[in-house]
UniProtKB/TrEMBL annotation:
Domain Four-carbon acid sugar kinase N-terminal: 3-227
Protein name: 3-oxo-tetronate kinase
Keywords: ATP-binding, Carbohydrate metabolism, Kinase, Nucleotide-binding, Transferase
Phosphoprotein among keywords: no
Gene3D superfamilies: Four-carbon acid sugar kinase, nucleotide binding domain, Putative sugar-binding, N-terminal domain
Enzyme Commission number: 2.7.1.217
Top-level taxonomic group: Bacteria
Pfam families hit by this protein: NBD_C, SBD_N
Amino acid sequence: MKLGCIGDDFTGSSDLANTLAKQGMRVVQYSGIPSEPASEDVEAGVVSLKSRSIAPADAVAQSLAALDWLIAQGCTQIFFKYCSTFDSTPDGNIGPVADALADALAADRVIVCPAFPGTGRSVYQGHLFVNDALLNQSGMENHPLTPMTDADLRRWMTPQSKYDIGHVAAQTVFAGADAILAGLNGEDAAGKRHIVVDAIRDEDLMEIGRAAADLKLVTGGSGVALGLPRNFGCTPGKPDWEGQSGPVLALSGSCSTATRAQVARHAARHPARELRAEDIIDGRETPDAVLDWAMITGDLPLIYSSADPEVVKAVQDQFGRERAASAIETFFADLARLAVARGVTRIITAGGETSGAVVEALDLTTLEIGPEIDPGVPALRAKPDLVLALKSGNFGAEDFFEKAAGVLGP
Ligand SMILES: Nc1ncnc2c1ncn2[C@@H]1O[C@H](COP(=O)(O)OP(=O)(O)O)[C@@H](O)[C@H]1O
Ligand SMILES: O=C(O)[C@@H](O)C(=O)COP(=O)(O)O
């Protein structure tokens, strides 16, 4: 293994694995830290953790354990993947994990770059934009777990990290890899360890990738990984893929803007069943009954708890943020387990935490990367008779669920 990756959630990890696979690397996504060595032919390993919204100390411990495993596989560069919307709170977990990885690797000039132009995320003058809106005006300010209320990445990262945060501005990035490296060196000399690097186009990311060839640690969204495979001699390619026939089920616990539009569109055309958080928490809904409904109805049924920000806020005020999230995630996890036991072979999940809960419940250890469904979302094969799509909350076109079902199989 050459490139070792640690993803702070499962959708983000599949997004990263997708980017690396498209750039020609032989990639495997692991669910949690594997207990065995990787197969010899894997060039990039992505260890998916569910560490984005847990206690910072736990996120650090899990990330360091993942690092140990990746180093033991021979990796010479480590990539820490977080969300292209920089999902974190003033306590973490991006800063504490980046600090711990940098310390463990004795890494300097740590790039911080969530840009992903293909999905509208750009970093300009240290600020993160989603299309034409600043991050904190993009809907992400209402995220149920990590409300993003400031678009200045340097300011957002500062309370999270024990190190000073530097910046390489767009003008330098536009001048290419040598200038970027000089910019990183300058910030390093000024005592900055984590360095926000601007990027607004894929060309910028390719140049940042070139500049990062000898760095021990790179952090960011999947975009900044675009230029890394070339450093390892890889050239773009297409994965082998054969779809899977059989019953399909879509599950959505994401309350992000894009997912809510996808849910609304799907519900107007296919069977869709809404789960109210209070009914789950009070036990009025059971996974068995909901699955019975899905198996009888067919036609790409969608089960969702996705709700508008006011509804989510009322639920969180009544039950507490963590209790609500955990009850809903457990429900989806139980539902997925029952669905597979009853013969479902294609599962589509929307939402990073939701997807993590589902993959962990299904006890899937490795995921093979298939073709891209929409930017940042690949088809995945988990077992000979089970394929998945793990959709990041804000990714995908409005007809994503239909599209995903089509790519996953006939
Ligand atoms: N109706 C709801 N009320 C409160 N919390 C919810 C509701 N629906 C889902 N959640 C929780 O919100 C979180 C959404 O996070 P996630 O699945 O990562 O989606 P995204 O990828 O959009 O961030 C999950 O923890 C989920 O259980
Ligand atoms: O970088 C991204 O935006 C995604 O890969 C990602 O991490 C999304 O996370 P969720 O929105 O929580 O699914």
